[in-house]
Amino acid sequence: MRTFLLLAALLVIAWAVLTDLPGEILRELRREPTVREDINPPPPREESPAPLVFAQATWPYETKLHPLVKNIPPAEENSFESVARYLVANEPDQLQRLKAIHDYLADRVAYDAESYLAGKSPPDDPAAVFSTRKSVCAGYAKLFNAMATTAGFKSRIVSGRARSIALTEADEAHAWNIVELDGRERLIDVTWDAGHLKDRAFVQKYSTDYFLAPPEIFAVSHFPDRPEDQLLATPLSRQDYLVQPLLAPRFYAYGLKLRTPLRSQIQAPPGDLFIELENPRGVWLMGSIGTADCSAKQTEVRCPVLPGTHRVMLFAGVERYGVYEHIGAFDVVR
C-alpha cells in the first residue's frame, strides 16, 4: 500500500513539471510553506496588548477635561453659581454636564496641603473655596454639592473614612458626594480626582477614576458613616472594608481580577509570595517588594519575601516598555 502511494505522488509531481502546474498548487502538494517577505511575526508575548477602551457612557470615563471647562469665558467665573449656570446653558447632556462640574473643580481647585499637614481646617464653605481656589476634602465636597444643586441635580455630601497606600494608619476622615443621575444615585470624589500629595506638596493630576465609579470599586477605599451610602445591596462592615486588598480603580479599569491573596495584610509562608490574577486583556504587569523587584507573568506576580514587614506594590501598563500605573498594594509579614 505504501509503495502504491509513493508511486502515485511521483506521478503527480512529474505531471506537474510536464504541464507547468502553477507553483502554488505544486507547493501545496509538496507541503512546502508559503513565505512572504513582508511578514515578520513577533515572538510570543512581545506584542503590545490591546489598548484600554474608555466608553463615554460608562466608567471609566475618558481622562480629558470637558471643552467648556477649558474654554469658559473669564466673565462667567465671577461665582460658583455663574459657572454652574454657564455649564447648564451650554451643555444639554446631563451626564456631560455633571462631568463638566466635576472637571471644573478638579482643574481649578488645589488641595490645601499646608493646612492638611498642619492638622488645620481651612474655610470650606462654597464661596470661600471658590474664591481661594484651594481646600481640603470637605471644601471640595461642599463646593461640588453647591454647584451640582445650582445645576439642577440632587446631590448630598457623604462623610466617612478613606484609605490609600500613602497613609501610615488604617484610614482617615474624608468627605465625598452622592448625586442622582437618570434616577440612580451615583458616587463622586472630586478631591481624589484633582491630584495627590508628594513630598508634602500637592501635585495636580486630573483623573476620572472616582467620577461615577461603581459602588464596589468605591467600597475598596471609601467607608461612609451611614451604611446605606455605600450604595451596595449588602453593605460592608468596617472589618470587611479594611481586610480587603487595597486595589486602585485602575486595577479594575484594566479589566483585572484578583484570584489570590484576598486580604490586604498577608502572613507569608516560607518561600516566595505569589499574586495570581485574571488578565483577559493581556496587560503588562510589574511588582516590587520594598526595594526589590518581583518577577511577573501575564497572570502571576512572584515576590521574594525576607523576614520582616514589607509593602508589595503592583503596577500595570498597556505597553511593555511604556508607562506603568500603580494598581494595588499588599502588606506582607514574615
CATH architecture of the largest domain: Roll
CATH topology of the largest domain: C8orf32 fold
Q: Order of helices and strands, N to C? A: HHHHHEHHEHEEEHEEHEHEHEEEEEEEE
* Count of all domains: 3
End-to-end separation in angstroms reads: 69 Å
Task: Give a quick rundown of the structure.
This protein has helices spanning 2-19, 23-29, 67-71, 80-90, 94-108, 113-118, 126-132, 137-150, 190-194, 215-221, 238-243, 249-253, and strands at 110-111, 134-135, 155-162, 172-181, 184-188, 195-198, 201-204, 222-224, 246-247, 257-260, 265-267, 273-278, 284-289, 292-296, 300-303, 309-317, 325-333. The chain has 334 residues and is α+β, with helices and mostly antiparallel strands.
Protein model, in words:
The protein is an alpha+beta fold. The chain has three domains: 10-36, no CATH class; 63-244, C8orf32 fold; 246-334, Immunoglobulins (Immunoglobulin-like, Sandwich). The protein is 32% helix and 26% strand. It has helices at 2-19, 23-29, 67-71, 80-90, 94-108, 113-118, 126-132, 137-150, 190-194, 215-221, 238-243, 249-253, and strands spanning 110-111, 134-135, 155-162, 172-181, 184-188, 195-198, 201-204, 222-224, 246-247, 257-260, 265-267, 273-278, 284-289, 292-296, 300-303, 309-317, 325-333. Strands 9, 10, 11, 12, 13, 14, 15, 16 and 17 form a nine-stranded mixed β-sheet that branches. The protein has a four-stranded antiparallel β-sheet with strand order 5-4-3-8.
